[in-house]
Design brief:
- By secondary structure, this protein is mostly helical.
- The chain has four domains: 182 residues, Orthogonal Bundle (Lysozyme), CATH 1.10.530.10; 71 residues, no CATH class; 57 residues, Membrane-bound Lytic Murein Transglycosylase D, Chain A, CATH 3.10.350.10; 69 residues, Membrane-bound Lytic Murein Transglycosylase D, Chain A (Roll), CATH 3.10.350.10.
- The protein is built from 21 helices and eight strands.
- The chain has a two-stranded antiparallel sheet. Strands 2-3 form a two-stranded antiparallel ribbon.
Length: 442
């Protein structure tokens, strides 16, 4: 039996090796093929580009097959935007270098989506990013934004190779490289002055462009092709729990989520106006007929729990009011956070601070809960200056701290949970840091 299995395994390996035969492609052959590519973008072929072609066609063939499986679907989304903005069709290969055609891709630097927009760049091109929805993950919206950004970079530098380099490292770094090179205007002439990552970025773009045009010559074929259901859109103007909606609309939840990659938490939140939800086209008639039932049902599940989680996320501004605080002598992030009943990590996130260092005169955005107002700052500070909760008397306010619960507050203040809930009009036992509670009656 062992001998038979071994023979069968050897035969399978042999067949796999035949199937995955890697054709020899000389430098001259690739150069000749590259010259046949008709593109507005300079596609210089050299040893650096050849090394990336070898990597994607020899050492990492599975990655290239995976790209071939996804390219038709995502290119069908990307190409119309390139045409609409009248920029080269070959820029579609940039999405492969950026994300491998993964709409939910996220880098360690917090770049997100097919086109890997950073939060600030995304916002400047109209891509919102909240705890619930990240439009950088929407293939349509992010592609439109990428086209506008690339077009702007081309207008700045006048060459597509430099525009692509600037897309990777920023226009400032490209300008610096141009100055240091003696004001050369070709990617390869400023190559040595660019950041290391960008030096690899353009060669990868050229290699991917070549390989996707000559995949068959390298015996590269997709194992299968990505196929999502034909979709149509419905307009949503309310909270919608997608799992509940999918169940009653007879849609596979995973399919609904794949059609809407920008939805991060499985819900459309309250307050998002005219959200276009992609649904399988063959279910739209049923959804329209049952719209009232489906929307009412999916509006009742998980709302309070998710809103509570959203409020606890670092940097959350949900339901908060914006304040501007000017740093004074002697301030530190800890004291400022204490004053406004927020976390240090929140202030860092709101103000894009990479450390806890702040300077006198610096303006900081502080987002406080509606229950927090300047009029109760003194009461808050008094309640938190090494004062134990056991000294609290009924009739005064208490600012909820991390780790508090209604049970612990009730026990220390000797006021029942029922009375605290009644006075503060609480419908549940959920409280959150920064919330102001009235403890008992005067």
């Amino acid at each position: 039996m062992f001998l038979i299995i071994s023979v069968l395994a050897a035969e399978e390996d042999s067949l796999h090796q035949i199937y995955d035969y890697i054709p020899d492609a000389s430098y001259a052959e690739i150069a000749d093929r590259m010259g046949c590519l008709n593109t507005e973008i300079p596609l210089t072929f050299n040893k650096t580009v050849k090394s990336f072609i070898d990597y994607f066609s020899v050492r990492n063939r599975d990655y290239t097959r995976g790209i071939l499986e996804k390219k038709d679907y995502y290119f069908s989304i990307i190409e119309p935007y390139l045409e609409e903005h009248r920029i080269p069709n070959d820029l579609k290969y940039l999405a492969i270098v950026e994300s491998g055609l993964v709409p939910r891709a996220q880098s360690r630097a917090s770049a997100v989506g097919l086109w890997q927009f950073m939060p600030s760049t995304g916002r400047s091109y109209g891509l919102s990013n909240s705890w619930y929805i990240d439009e950088r993950m929407d293939p349509h919206q992010s592609t439109d934004a990428a086209c506008r950004y690339l077009k702007s970079l081309y207008n700045t530098f006048g060459r597509w190779d430099l525009a692509i380099a600037a897309y990777n490292c920023g226009p400032g770094n490209v300008r610096k490289a141009i100055r240091r090179s003696g004001y050369k205007k070709d990617f390869w002439q400023i190559y040595r002055y660019l950041p290391r990552e960008t030096r690899s970025y353009i060669p990868q773009f050229i290699a991917i462009n070549y390989l996707l045009n000559y995949a068959e010559e390298h015996n590269l074929f997709p194992n299968q092709k990505l196929s999502l259901a034909l979709s149509d859109t419905i307009v949503v103007n309310q909270y919608l729990h997608l799992a509940t909606f999918a169940y009653f609309a007879d849609i596979v939840l995973e399919e609904l989520l794949d059609l809407n990659p920008s939805i991060k938490r499985g819900v459309i939140p309250e307050g998002v106006g005219d959200f276009l939800l992609n649904v399988p086209a063959d279910r739209k008639i049923y959804i329209n007929l049952q719209r009232t039932f489906l929307f009412d049902t999916a509006n009742k599940v998980g709302k309070e729990e998710l809103e509570y989680l959203a409020r606890q996320m670092v940097g959350n501004t949900y339901g908060r009011n914006k304040n501007i605080y000017q740093v004074k002598s002697g301030d530190n992030l800890g004291s400022i956070a204490h004053r406004y009943a927020v976390r240090v990590s929140d202030i860092q996130n709101w103000n894009h601070l990479s450390s806890t260092l702040i300077r006198v005169g610096q303006n900081l955005d502080i987002w406080t809960l509606p229950s927090y107002a300047k009029g109760i700052q003194k009461a808050y500070l008094a309640a938190n200056q090494n004062k134990k909760l056991s000294t609290i008397k009924s009739g005064i306010t208490y600012q909820v701290r991390r780790g508090d619960s209604l049970w612990s507050i009730s026990k220390s203040s000797k006021v029942s949970i029922a009375i605290i809930k009644k006075i503060n009009k609480l419908n549940s036992n959920i409280i959150y840091p920064g919330q102001t509670l009235i403890i008992g009656d005067n």
